[in-house]
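Checklist before submission:
- one chain only
- standard amino acids only
- sequence pasted in full

Submission:
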Amino acid sequence: MRTVKINLGAIDKVKNFVNLIARYDGDFDLVSGRYVIDAKSIMGIFSLDLSKPIELAIHSDEEADEVIAALAPYIVE
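Returned file contents:
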């Protein structure tokens, strides 16, 4: 499992993020504090506090590098 911090501060970013992450078969979770939601769930994402970076957990090691490259515009250092 690999994790990266992402920023989804705008509605368009959330929509584009969900469309992009849905292309992959692996499991992805978003972690914000004590809440863990499925990263492919647009309703779940909107239940989180989007004003600060969220941790994305990528459970598929073989796809991780490809997913991280595709999500580069959302990743914060």
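Reviewer check: Residues 11-21 form the longest helix (11 residues).
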